[in-house]
Amino acid sequence: MLNMVLPKCRKLGSDEVLVTCNCENEGSKRIILKKWRYNSRGEQE
């Protein structure tokens, strides 16, 4: 779902988006930390 939301945030003018999850949710935590690292221009790092 993040890959659908982030482009919409950029279109709305958001340079940064805070994505959080429960600290016990290891699956979401891994995705957020490894797969979804974007810089302020929306480019994956």
Task: Report what the structure shows.
This protein has 45 residues and is an all-alpha fold. It has one domain (2-35). The protein has helices at 2-11, 26-35. The longest helix is centred in the first third of the chain and has 10 residues, at 2-11. It is elongated. The mean pLDDT is 78.
How would you sum up this structure in a few lines?
The protein is mostly helical and 45 residues long. It is 44% helix and 0% strand.
List the helices and strands and how they pair.
Elements: H1 2-11, H2 26-35
The shape is: elongated
Output the number of helix runs: 2
Query: Uncertain regions: pLDDT < 50 for 5+ in a row?
Result: none
The biggest sheet amounts to: none
Number of domains: 1
What is the average of the pLDDT values?
78
How would you spell out the order of helices and strands?
HH
> What is the gyration radius calculated from CA atoms?
11 Å
Structural class by secondary-structure content: mainly alpha
The rounded distance between the terminal residues' Cα atoms is 19 Å
Beta strand %:
under 5%
Got a strand count?
0
What is the percent of helical residues? 40-55%
Descriptive terms for the model:
mainly alpha; 45 residues
